[in-house]
């Protein structure tokens, strides 16, 4: 009996968006209007690339970015939940699928000593250039019309499950924990026995309920959470069964 926990990162594990939090490093803690207005739907990674160039041009160094990023608060109850998962790793495989980037997620998990809880992190590759600028790339290419250009979370989840099956690992249940519009695509991929856990009041919950109202509900069960303690309570019930 093994369960797969799939976590989004921004507004799920942490209570903020790491990409917008970084604006605290900018001069006067804001971005110029021209840069702010340069975002085009589906091209967030390119937009963040321009933000990182702006920060670099203004002399914002790696250590300052790291200091700022590691002050982002975890979502209510998340520290308890991740601690609980860490104590029960023989029952839970745990992955992150996020539109953030490797540098931010790595820093945050290591600062809180949670990096061992997660088996794999699937997110946009990032690194600091020799000039000290943070650069970010697309996670992969895909053909899904519903998802942003750089990342289809359904594709990531499907490929991970296929790879695990090749290794002889299959899961009793997949539990998907997220909040955003880009979490709907992988949730639509979940099977009848799986469970989607959308964060209360966020886009994913609204999208799932719109589908139910239009009589094309998702196949999996849905359990809404507002604190990660709600998620932990569910996992404790699963283990008891």
Automatic annotation (TrEMBL):
* Keyword Iron on entry: no
Q: Which residues bind substrate?
A: 19, 99
UniProt keywords (A-Z) are: Hydrolase, Magnesium, Metal-binding
Which cofactors is this protein said to need?
Mg(2+)
Residues where Mg(2+) binds: 8, 10, 179
- Return the InterPro entries for the record: HAD-like_sf (IPR036412), HAD_hydro_PyrdxlP_Pase-like (IPR006384), HAD_sf (IPR023214), Pase_PHOSPHO-typ (IPR016965)
**Gene3D superfamilies for this protein:** HAD superfamily/HAD-like
Pfam families attached here?
A: Put_Phosphatase
Active-site feature positions: 8, 10
Annotated Gene Ontology MF terms? Answer: metal ion binding; phosphatase activity
Keyword Magnesium annotated? yes
Which family, according to UniProt? Belongs to the HAD-like hydrolase superfamily. PHOSPHO family.
Kindly provide the name given to this protein in its UniProt entry. PHOP2 phosphatase
Task: Report the source organism.
Answer: Loxia curvirostra (Red crossbill)
């Amino acid at each position: 009996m093994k369960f797969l926990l799939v976590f989004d990162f921004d507004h799920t594990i942490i209570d903020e968006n790491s990409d917008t939090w970084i604006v605290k490093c900018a001069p006067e803690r804001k971005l110029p209007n021209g840069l702010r207005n340069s975002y085009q739907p589906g091209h967030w990674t390119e937009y963040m690339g321009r933000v990182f160039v702006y920060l670099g041009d203004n002399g914002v160094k790696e250590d300052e970015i790291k200091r700022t990023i590691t002050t982002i608060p975890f979502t209510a109850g998340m520290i308890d939940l991740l601690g609980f998962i860490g104590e029960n790793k023989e029952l839970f495989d745990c992955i992150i699928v996020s539109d953030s980037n490797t540098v931010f997620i790595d820093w945050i998990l290591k600062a809180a000593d949670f990096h061992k809880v997660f088996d794999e992190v699937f997110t946009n590759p990032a690194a600091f250039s020799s000039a000290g600028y943070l650069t970010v790339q697309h996670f992969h290419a895909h053909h899904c019309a519903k998802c942003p250009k750089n990342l289809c979370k359904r594709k990531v989840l499907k490929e991970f499950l296929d790879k695990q099956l090749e290794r002889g690992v299959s899961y009793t249940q997949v539990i998907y924990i997220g909040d955003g519009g880009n979490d709907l695509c992988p949730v639509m991929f979940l099977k009848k026995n799986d469970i989607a856990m959308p964060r209360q009041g966020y886009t994913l919950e609204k999208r799932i309920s719109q589908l139910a109202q239009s009589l094309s509900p998702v196949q999996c069960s849905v359990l809404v959470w507002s604190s990660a303690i709600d998620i932990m309570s569910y996992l404790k019930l699963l283990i008891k069964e």
